[in-house]
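Model it.
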Amino acid sequence: MARVIWVLINVQRNTVAMIEPSKKPLNVLIKQLQGNIEVVLKNGCDYKGKMIKCDSHMNILLEGATEFKDEQAITNYGNVLLRGNNVLYIVLDANKH
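Modeled.
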C-alpha cells in the first residue's frame, strides 16, 4: 500500500514541507477527541475542557468548559462551541500544563 504524503508550500520562503496524513493538524486534533484540551482564542480568552467534537473547520465542542482570562478562571460552562475561525492555537493534553 502506498503512503500518501501531503505537500505544503511556503510561498514567502519558497520552501516545500512534506507532511504525512497522520501529522496533518486536523488528524492530530481528531485523535485527541474525548481528551482535555486548552483553546486560546484571538481575543485572549482561554477555554479548557473535554473535547467532544470537532469538524473540518476546527469548530470545537467542549464539555465542562472553563473560561480563563489572564490565567484567572472567569466562568464555568456546561458545553461550549468554539468557532474555528476564532482559534489562535490549541494545547493538547491540557491537564499536563
